[in-house]
Amino acid sequence: MALLRANVFQPPTPSLTFLIPPASYSQWVLRFLLLQFTILSFPLILILIPLSIGLPAQYAPLALHPHNIPPHRSFFGACVRGWQVYCLGGLIWAITGSGSAPDHQDKVALTLSKGSRKIIEFVARVTGSGGNGGDLRITEEDVKPFPRELCVGVLDMDNLDRRTIPGFRLESVSPRGYEAPKAKKAILWLSGGGYVTGYPLVDPPLFSLARKLPLGAYTIFAPSVRRCLSLDRAFPIPLLDALAGYIHLRRNGYEPEDIVVMGNSAGSGLSWSLIAYLAILKDLRRGDLGIPGEVIMISVSRRHKC
Questions:
Q1: Is the pTM above the cut of 0.85?
Q2: Quick check: 168 and 201 in contact, CB under 8 A?
Q3: Do residues 219 and 207 touch, judged by C-beta distance below 8 A?
Q4: What is the model's pLDDT at position 14?
Q5: Pairing assessment for the beta strands 259-264 and 218-223 based on DSSP bridges
Q6: Beta carbons within 8 Å of 98's beta carbon, 6+ residues apart
Q7: Containing H/E element for 295?
Q8: Percent of the chain with pLDDT over 70
Q9: What pLDDT shows up at residue 26?
Q10: Angle of helix 42-54 relative to helix 25-40, nearest 10 degrees?
């Protein structure tokens, strides 16, 4: 549950449930306990939602989108909307393990993020989530803003928040600490979550991918794309962050043909936007970023027969 300030992400507990193989009974025990916690927190949400609407945004205990509060909605309508979002969202997060991205400028969020990495690495080691029997190592790296000289169209607006964001490198290493040579290929992972939730370290498919990859064959890099918890994080901020993740891999020596862009759900749309933007830069002959060799888009939509 998002029971912390808008710029502090949910506690990392949900991420544990998806690092355990589906056949494990422990997975269902953890989900059941988290579900009970979610249900018990509903009365607190009934109190916190009106407080969040009445207080200034910087003091609000819960994050609410500006379009869901006065003057866009009545006070009662905003309360109903907030209760629906947080109660339903809490159930979804308890079951699926989603979570909104933390703001690494905040000390509390930074502390929680560091703690979650240690917990995830431990659970991954216990459950064999490193791929080919290796251990999963998670390294946080600073991702510099996408260069302004390569920004065209809406990305060139002056009022955009251009800042360094964190990115997470996931690699499988030998349990004995053997340092494998640098992987020749890289996967740029863009998390899903409808552009409002989704933090790489609580994105279930990311760890399923890490478990399946051969030891040392790929490095996975997942930038913590900012989400639309407020208008200053709305489009095109997510695209700026995704592009920053791509150029970060280029600066680390990966050629375009050696980079696979992979997105989950909303991350799929972001992957397509990234490819389209790089194609525009190529047509304009701006920079030498190239176009990734492959793109894989994972959608949660159902297929219907025509």
A1: no
A2: yes
A3: no
A4: 42
A5: unpaired
A6: 14, 92, 193, 197, 198, 202, 203
A7: strand 294-298
A8: 66
A9: 58
A10: 50
Give the per-residue pLDDT at 294: 92
Query: Which amino acid does the sequence have at 288?
Result: D
Instruction: Supply 178's token pair.
Output: 């053997």
The least confident of 62-76, 122-136, 220-234, 280-294 is: 122-136
3-state secondary structure of 143: strand
- The residue with tokens 């260069």 is 147
Q: At what angle do helices 266-284 and 237-251 cross, to 10 degrees?
A: 70
How are strands ordered across the β-sheet holding 135-143? 135-143, 165-173, 218-223, 185-190, 259-264, 294-298
- Own/partner contacts of 72-79, CB < 8 Å, gap of 24 or more, are 75/50, 78/53, 79/49, 79/50, 79/53
Six-digit token string for 292 = 């990734």
Report residue 120's pLDDT band, with 50, 70 and 90 as the boundaries. Answer: low
| Lookup: tokens for 189 | 């992972």
The DSSP-derived string for 153-198 is GGGG-TTS----EEEEEEEEE-TT---PPPPSEEEEEE--STTTS-
DSSP string, 258-274: GEEEEEETHHHHHHHHH
- The answer to which of 40-54, 121-135, 144-158, 200-214 has the lowest mean pLDDT is 121-135
Cβ–Cβ under 8 Å, residues 207 and 270: no
Which position has the higher pLDDT, 301 or 130? 130
